[in-house]
Amino acid sequence: MRHTIQVLVENKFGVLSRVSGLFSGRGYNIESISVGPTLDNQISQMTIVTSGDDQIIEQINKQLNKLIDVIKVTDFTEFEHVEREMALIKVSPKSEHRAEALRIVDIFRAVIVDSSPKTYTIQVTGDGKKIQAIVDLLKPLGIKEIVRTGKVAISREGKTAG
Amino acid sequence: MKLSGAEILIECLRKEGVKHVFGYPGGVVLNIFDVIYGQKDVELILTRHEQGATHAADGYARATGKPGVVLVTSGPGATNIVTGLATAYMDSIPMVAITGQVPTSLIGNDAFQEADIVGITRPCTKYNFLVKDVADLAKTIKEAFFIATTGRPGPVLIDIPKDVTVSKTEFHYPATVDIRSYKPTVKGHMYQIKQAAAAIAKAKRPVIVAGGGVITSGAADELKELAEATKVPVTLTMMGLGGFPGNHKLCLGMLGMHGTYYANMAVHNADLLVAIGMRFDDRVTGKVEGFAPHAKIVHIDIDPTSIRKNVRVDVPIVGDVKNVLKDLNKVIKEETQESWGAIRKAWLSQVEDWKAEHPMAYEQDDVIKPQFVVEKIWEITKGDAIIATEVGQNQMWAAQFFKFIKPRTWISSGGLGTMGYGFPAAIGAQLAYPDRLVFDVAGDGSIQMNIQELATAVLNNLPVKVAILNNCYLGMVRQWQELFFDKRYSSTCLVGTPDFVKVAEAYGAVGLRASKPSEVEPVIREAIKVRKPVFMDFVCDQTEKVYPMVPAGAAINEMLLRPKDEKPAKKRLKAVK
C-alpha cells in the first residue's frame, strides 16, 4: 500500500543522503521525495511517498525515527490530510491544436506560465490523479518536456495525531 | 586561552577519560600527533595497520564497556578503518573514530589522500560528522561520545580537515549534551512489562533467549535473577555469551546455526520466548517461518527497529535491558504467586532429556581435535580468561566448548563475521587488562589477515596467547563445500601458510607447536607461563566439522548432527617445521 510520510529533520548537510541511504540500503522504494524549509530555519520538512506492506512501513517509520537527525515522523496515511503536487508541462502543439491546449488548461484550472511561438509551458497543481489526467490529455498534442515536484502533504486542522 | 584544533581534540579526549587511542599517523593528522607527542595522559598505541587499530579499539570497548578510540589519517588511512567500523556497528560496540581530512579548501577537489569518508561510512556508523569550523570541534566531540555510548551503542566517526586542526579558538567543553532528535527510550512500558510477567507465569514451556544487549547494559545479574526466580532455561546468542553463566544448570548454551541440540530443540518446542537484548539474526532463527512455531514472543530491546524486523512479536518492550529486567523482576516478585518449581518440572526434565540425548561432544583420537584445544584452555584457565576469536570454525568451537561465566570475557565478531578481528581485538583487551589472561582462538586463515599486529603486541608488552587451530584449510568454507558442494574444495586449501612458530620468533614473540594430543596441555601451560605474546600452532584434524549445524534454509530443529560412523581423518597433516 502507498504511504505518504512526513519527516521533520535537522537542516544540516548530508541529512537527505542519510534518509535516501536508509531507503536504498534496505531495499525500500521511494516513489517521490520533496524537501523544503519550515518556519524554523533549523528544521527542514520532507514528504516521502513510499509503498510496502504493513511490516515494511512499520520498519520505515522506525528506521526513520532511529536516524539521529530526524525529529519527527508522521505517516499521513493514518490521518486526514491534503496532498498536492505540481507539474510544469511544456507542450508543442501543431498550430491547429493550440486552441485545444488552451481549453485543456482551462478545464484543469491550470495556467500558462510561459509561451513561445511553438510552445506553451503549463503549470498545474493537484493530486496525483489530476496531474496524470492532464498529462494523458496533453500527450496527443505533443509534450516536449515534463517536470513534477513530487507530493507535498499537510494534515487537516484538528485531525492530526498531535 | 586559545587552543588549536589539535590541542582541543586531545583536551576533549582527556575530559572524556580516554587513556588509550589506537592509531596510525599520516599527512593531515601530523598536527594532532604532534600534540600527542608532548603529553602523557592520552597514550597512542601504534598498530601496524589501520584495520588493526579499529579492531583493537573494538576489543578494548568490548572488554571494558568504555568506548574505543581510533585516530587515523585521511584517504587510505580512513578507508582502511571501514571494516572495523562495520564490525563494531553490526555488534553495537561504542567507538569513536577520528579521521584526518584534507584542508577544507581542497575538499571535493580529488586532493592527494582525499576520500569522502563521511559518505563512505554513513551506512556503517551510528552517526558521523565533518567538522568544518574549529569553533564546532569541542561540541562535536562531546556529541560523538554521547551518541556512541548511549541508546544502542555504535561507532561514530569525526572527520577533521587539516586546517581545522591548526586554527585556534577558545576552548570550552560542554558539560552536557542535548540533541532534540536523539532521545533513546531507556525505561520499559510498565503495562507491557506486566504483560510479560503474566506470560511467563502462564507459560508451560518458556525459554529465555538472551543476546548482546545483556552484556551492553550490564544486566547479567538481573538476567540470572529472572531465570532462577521463574526457573526458565536460558539460551544465548553468540553475542550474549557470558551474559549467563555457561556452567549454570539452567544454561542451554548457544542457539542457532551451530547452537546446541538442546537449545534449538527447546526454542523450537517452546510456548514462550523471552527475547532479551537480541535481534533475531538469521543465524539464530534459521528459516523464519519455521522458527519457534508454537511460541508467543516477548521481545525486550532498546532499539525499536529490532522489534518485529524479522519475527512477529506479541509483547514488545522498548527499553534498556537492565531497567526492564529490574522492573520485570520486581513485578514477578510482587505479583505472581506461582510455585515455579512445580509448574516447570515437566519442561525442565524434557530439557534435561534433550541434553542427555545429544550433548556437545567430540572424540579425541590420535590427531588433535580443535575442540580438545578449546576445552583444555577452559580447564587450565578454569574459565577465568578473556577469549577473543577470529571467524569461522575456530569461533564456533570456542563458542561451543568454552563455558563463559562472566560478561565481557567473550570477544568475537558476530554480525559482520570479520576474519582477522580476533588478534587485534585481543590486543585491545589485553591493553585494558594487562594482568588478565587473554587468548585469541584463531584459525590458520584468519590469523594471517592481521598477523602484522604481532609487532604491536610485542612492542607494548601485551602477552596475548594466540591458539591457532591449524587445519590447513579455511575450515568453515571447506565444511560447506564438503557437505553441500560435493567436496569440490574451491580455494579453501591454504597451501603456503608460513611456519607460525618462526613468524612469532621473527617478531620477537614466542612460538610453540603441538602436533599430538599429549602436547596440547604442556603447550598451553608454557604459553601462560611466559610473559610475552605467544603463537601456539596446534596441528589439528583437517576434516573436523562444526556440529550441530542447521543447513541454510532449514528450521533450527532440522540440525545436522555428527554422523555416528564418521571416521577421523585418514591423511595425517604434515606439521610445518
What do you see in this structure?
- Chain A has 162 residues and is an alpha+beta fold.
- Chain A has four helices and nine strands, in the order βαββαββαββαββ.
- In chain A, strands 5, 6, 7, 8 and 9 form a five-stranded antiparallel β-sheet that branches. A four-stranded antiparallel β-sheet of chain A has the order 2-3-1-4, covered by helices on one side.
- Chain A is elongated, with a radius of gyration of 19 Å.
- Chain B has 577 residues and is α/β, with parallel strands linked by helices.
- Chain B is 37% helix and 16% strand.
- In chain B, strands 3-2-4-5-7-6 form a six-stranded parallel β-sheet, sandwiched between helices.
- The longest helix of chain B has 18 residues, at 340-357.
- Chain B starts with a strand and ends in a 38-residue tail after the last strand.
- Chain A binds chain B through residues 9-10, 14, 17-18, 21, 25, 55, 58-59, 62-63, 65-71, and chain B through 118-119, 122-123, 126-127, 130, 147, 179-182, 303-305, 307-309.
Summarize the structure.
Chain A is an alpha+beta fold and 162 residues long.
Instruction: Report the helical percentage of chain A.
Output: 25-40%
Tally of helical runs of chain A: 4
Largest sheet of chain A: 5 strands, antiparallel
* Helix-and-strand structural type of chain B: alpha/beta
Mean pLDDT of chain B: 96
Number of helices of chain B: 22
Broad structural category of chain A: alpha+beta
Principal-axes shape call of chain B: globular
Helix content bin of chain B: 25-40%
The total count of strands of chain B amounts to 20
Strand order of the largest sheet of chain B: 3-2-4-5-7-6
Largest interface: A-B, 19 and 18 residues
Jot down its keywords.
heterodimer; A: alpha+beta; five-stranded antiparallel beta sheet; B: 577 residues; six-stranded parallel beta sheet; 22 helices; disordered C terminus
